[in-house]
Amino acid sequence: MRELSLHILDLVQNSITANSNLIKVHIEENTSENLFKIIIEDDGKGMEKEFLEKVRSPFTTSRDTRDIGLGIPLFEAACDRCGGGIEIWSEVGEGTKLVGTMERNNIDRPPLGRINETISSLLLFDNVDIEYIHKVNENEFVFKSTEIKEIVGEDINSPSIIKWINEYIIENLQGIGVDIWS
């Protein structure tokens, strides 16, 4: 995939399929340690130990519609290519946590891309709350759908609110030094 935000979207869809109510997407950038970390954590149904051991294979999927699942293997390949890797923890009935790391300045690291669109598109799923935290060194931006819902109610996925959320995310990410498209 050309953008990390598309990897995130694909991985979060796994969390939605696992009946998560809360999905956390945390991105940490540390310039002094040359680290770019993506953490996706959910409170979904979790994975059995046997499935967890095979989940990195493209021939392992929980979907009924096809026999191939590329989300985790493609993300792992991107992390490996950029001097990092992934770790996955899961507990049945508790949820799953995936951590992907990369060298921040690695020439092969895909751009973050349109993370604002990824986050706002996730708001279209009913009964799912999103927590998005992006940290660059000591600067941090926090977005919680629960806080937005307290203000706008259930109209969170109306076109005007989604447009505002997109602009809000872009403005705040630029404010902490995130270059979304590179």
Brief summary:
This protein is of the alpha+beta class. It is built from 6 helices and 6 strands; from the N terminus they run H-E-E-H-H-E-E-H-E-E-H-H.
Q: Helix and strand layout, with pairings?
A:
Layout: H1 4-17, E1 22-30, E2 35-42, H2 49-54, H3 71-81, E3 85-91, E4 95-103, H4 115-122, E5 129-136, E6 139-144, H5 145-152, H6 159-175
Parallel strand pairs: 1-5
Antiparallel strand pairs: 1-2, 2-4, 3-4, 5-6
Helix pairs in contact: 1-4, 4-6
User: Which descriptor suits the 3D outline?
Assistant: globular
* SSE string, helices as H and strands as E: HEEHHEEHEEHH
- Counting helices, strands and paired strands, the structural category is alpha+beta
**Strands of the largest sheet, in order across it?**
3-4-2-1-5-6
Whole-number tally of structural domains: 1
Q: State the major sheet.
A: 6 strands, mixed
C-alpha termini separation: 14 Å
Give the integer mean of the pLDDT values.
Answer: 89
> Which percent range fits the helix content?
25-40%
Round the Cα radius of gyration to an integer and report it. 16 Å
Strand coverage percent: 25-35%
The CATH architecture assignment turns out to be 2-Layer Sandwich
Give the CATH level 1 class: Alpha Beta
CATH topology: Heat Shock Protein 90
